[in-house]
Amino acid sequence: MTTNQQMFLYAVEEMNFTRAAEKAFVTQQCLSDHIRRLEKSYDVKLFDRTPHLKLTQAGEILYASLVEIQKIENNLERAISKNSADVSGTISVGIHVERAHLLFPALYREYHRKYPNVRVTLISEQTPQLLQDLESGKLDMMLGLDIPPQTGYRKDMILEEPVYLFATEKLLQQYLPDRVPGQPWIDADSLSRLPLTCTSFTCAVTRHMGAFLTEKNVRANYVCEIGDYLTQLLLCQNHETAFFCPESFLIEHNFITSQQGDPNERVQPLIIRGLSSKIRVDIISGENRYLPGYAADFRDMLIRQYRDRIGELRAHRDALI
């Protein structure tokens, strides 16, 4: 089932685009775009939006058909899973090293129990290199960030992540002495006064922040380029630099450990005022590349685990507000 069709099912189940978007971990605009693409592909109108949201006749037919397809897929998955221990094969997955640290250990434990004879190979590179590996057939799938629209790929959206500035209060007071201590946000103008690190200038987060800072006419003071977030975290803990990092890093064990001790010494994630755009996270595979059932199952497990971990994180943070 395609992402467009999945988003349509969310919309029908909720009969409210806002609630459906929240359920799918996407923006309302993103969900509406998926519905419009589906309508365009079938050349029909699927929803009447006035006086209230309801399905058209074409929408009802499509919904009934997709429900049947979903049942078939679920029955097939259950039938296959009974014999999954006998399945053998290999999967090659491209993923940035930080997200591999965050997600793969628990994911592999679950997956290996179901498919003990499937070998999983992880290749950790930046997104541009992973796209080349995917195109050449070296990868079956990859986790991609902010991949621009292009033909030849299937994109299954996982969610969208905000980007934070990570810094200690001690560093902030050193370079921004007029700042109110403990303030949970920072202005874009203040970023030019801080020493910053970044993973690389081809990294999705660095490119994302570069576009934002250019729009705000702010020049970032990058003093060091480092290939991983953990090393940046160590510099940050030593009050040497600050760095930009996506929301998923908040579940990293080393970051959680950095929250202990003196409040001035802790690494804190700061909201960047004026930054409304987010990093889009997708699972990407070749549009015409066949994925065996065990590979598709790995993709679905990865999507579910990613959403569940971030969902738990957001629920915990909301409870603290």
Automatic annotation (TrEMBL):
GO MF annotations, alphabetized: DNA-binding transcription factor activity; transcription cis-regulatory region binding
Question: What keywords would UniProt list here?
Answer: DNA-binding, Transcription, Transcription regulation
Q: Does the keyword Transmembrane helix apply?
A: no
Q: Which SUPFAM superfamilies match?
A: Periplasmic binding protein-like II (SSF53850), Winged helix' DNA-binding domain (SSF46785)
PROSITE patterns, A to Z: HTH_LYSR
The UniProt entry, under InterPro entries, shows: LysR_HTH_N (IPR000847), LysR_subst-bd (IPR005119), WH-like_DNA-bd_sf (IPR036388), WH_DNA-bd_sf (IPR036390)
Q: Which part of the chain is the HTH lysR-type domain?
A: 1-56
Tell me the superkingdom of the source. Answer: Bacteria
Q: Which family does it belong to?
A: Belongs to the LysR transcriptional regulatory family.
**Protein name per its UniProtKB record:** DNA-binding transcriptional regulator, LysR family
Q: What organism is the protein native to?
A: [Clostridium] aminophilum
Q: Tell me the lineage of the source organism.
A: Bacteria, Bacillati, Bacillota, Clostridia, Lachnospirales
